[in-house]
């Protein structure tokens, strides 16, 4: 295909890349290959609204007319098996191939599996609409569910199933929920709030064995020796990036397909974006692989610009959200190096934010039901602005005023 771009993976990143190529003025052929048969859809609702509403439909990322109207050759149900680097050609499952001039790998990630689950019925993980349909079909008559993993997706599902009347137990191997990156005060708040709606939360606990009846899971045994009845077991223990295509082709891999700040892999005419890509983040200088809609979307926009010959480096402010029961969690920045934090607001009101600092510098804000703090945080981090403790104590009005002053000073050259 002369001067064409082929995109592998029709999820958040792949679809945005196709859209951005056209928005940026690319007029060559664009082919979008996805192994799922559906029109590409939003993933976040799957663990939030979709599994609790029997009538909910997948929410398309773009309507069907977007693909035809923008001359995007979208081919659903197409699994790419191999990249022939020398021939600049893809080999497709079931035979056939497709040559490319530029290639964007947007292959996403897949749930980590639990070896002891075997192939029992009633064991689920959640990545695709097919997974969500299977969970929804069984959750209608769910009495007991065990969720393995106290990360965002596991906890979203726990709250959703509990709202539907299911007895839910969350099992987390670490001594707290939500991993190390979230402030302990938020992890403790989420823990307490889930318990208040009747979710049982067991930290520092593992599953040692599953029991089954007629090939269907019936209980989970945990490290304390207790037997937990379970009609459903949902495994939410993280994801692994889909790097196999890239790896087989000899591209550099480091916890994801390694890319530079223009999204180019170790073979420059092949780019990688979204959950599958790892890169040195401008924000910390450290290597990261992020799993968020924002990351996928901003990577895709930049990849399109790189293909059109622009040299901009990745500079988006990272952010993420999660809805767990009545808690909207919003995170901005990267807080792994936080060595001081300030809490603004009251956890007891279910509305508060945590401002993280590394030395003197603001590096991130995590909010529970305080969307204004999140939006202001995105502005502050984008400007590289660190508020004083007094400004944070003054809340949104004080922070907005401080940002306006900073923006005016940046725009106005200092008087001689
Ligand atoms: P994906 O969207 O996974 O798309 C990759 C696509 O490539 C998939 O369709 C895959 O099947 C396909 N593919 C892979 N290999 C091949 C191949 N060889 N040939 C053809 N096709 C292939 N993020 C947030 O920011 N906030 C949230 O609240 C949130 N909630 C989430 C809830 C759920 C249930 C899930 C699963 C994810 C959630 N995320 C959330 C994460 C977010 O959805 C991902 O970060 C985002 O989808 C990544 O986009 P991507 O395009 O890189 O990968």
TrEMBL record:
Start and end residues of each FAD/NAD(P)-binding domain: 5-300
Q: Name one GO molecular function term.
A: oxidoreductase activity, acting on NAD(P)H
List the record's Gene Ontology CC terms alphabetically. Answer: cytoplasm
Report keywords, A-Z.
Answer: FAD, Flavoprotein, Oxidoreductase
* Entries under Pfam families matching the protein: Pyr_redox_2 (PF07992), Reductase_C (PF14759)
List, for all copies, the residue spans of the domain called Reductase C-terminal.
Answer: 319-402
List, separated by semicolons, the cofactors it needs: FAD
What PANTHER family does this protein's entry cite?
Answer: APOPTOSIS-INDUCING FACTOR 1 (PTHR43557), RIESKE DOMAIN-CONTAINING PROTEIN-RELATED (PTHR43557:SF2)
**What protein am I looking at?**
Pyridine nucleotide-disulfide oxidoreductase
* Organism from which the protein derives: Manganibacter manganicus
